[in-house]
């Protein structure tokens, strides 16, 4: 009920993709999950809050795109031949796609909250949230910001070792 009147009001399900360590394939899994849901006819968005290594724009070959503002916030980048996946990433806000982001907690947390509140997602069946590695401030911020919304659950990516 709290989600009414926000930019997430039209999002039916939110799925977090998490892991305890880096390099296990979170961004790959987020991308593949979005593409699979899209091919099943679902309306899909990806929120890339991996501030230190935003790789999804490159995976989807839109790393040169820029984000525009509209009345209700940032307009996500449309991805794919049918432009059917909406993508928002810190990568679009950097001067060069390969720039690293070195920020302290409060600034990261503020950006994550802004990503949750200020992106004009429109109507989506699924919003996939790709998180940074580990269990840090950013995860708590993302979960707290998403708590009033339809958080469906999380996919935990692990490796066999």
Automatic annotation (TrEMBL):
One of its GO terms (cellular component) is cytosol. Keywords: 4Fe-4S, ATP-binding, Iron, Iron-sulfur, Metal-binding, Nucleotide-binding. It comes from the Eukaryota. It holds the Pfam family ParA. Gene3D superfamilies: P-loop containing nucleotide triphosphate hydrolases (3.40.50.300). Signal peptide: none annotated. One of its GO terms (molecular function) is metal ion binding. GO terms for biological process: iron-sulfur cluster assembly. PANTHER family: CYTOSOLIC FE-S CLUSTER ASSEMBLY FACTOR NUBP2, NUCLEOTIDE-BINDING PROTEIN NBP35 YEAST -RELATED. This is NUBP2 factor. It comes from Copsychus sechellarum. The lineage of its organism: Eukaryota, Metazoa, Chordata, Craniata, Vertebrata. The gene is Nubp2.
């Amino acid at each position: 009920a709290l989600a009414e009147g926000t930019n997430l009001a039209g999002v039916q399900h939110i799925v977090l993709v998490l892991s305890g360590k880096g390099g296990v394939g979170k961004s790959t899994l987020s991308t593949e999950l979005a593409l699979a849901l899209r091919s099943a006819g679902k309306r899909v968005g990806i929120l890339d809050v991996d501030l230190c290594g935003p790789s999804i724009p490159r995976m989807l070959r839109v790393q040169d795109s820029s984000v525009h503002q509209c009345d209700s916030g940032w307009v996500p980048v449309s991805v794919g031949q049918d432009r059917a996946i909406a993508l928002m990433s810190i990568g679009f806000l950097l001067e060069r796609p390969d720039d690293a982001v070195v920020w302290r907690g409060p600034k990261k947390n503020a950006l994550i909250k802004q990503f949750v509140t200020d992106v004009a997602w429109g109507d989506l069946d699924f919003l996939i949230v790709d998180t940074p590695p580990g269990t840090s401030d950013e995860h708590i911020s993302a979960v707290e910001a998403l708590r009033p919304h339809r958080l469906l659950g999380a996919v935990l990516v692990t490796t066999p070792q």
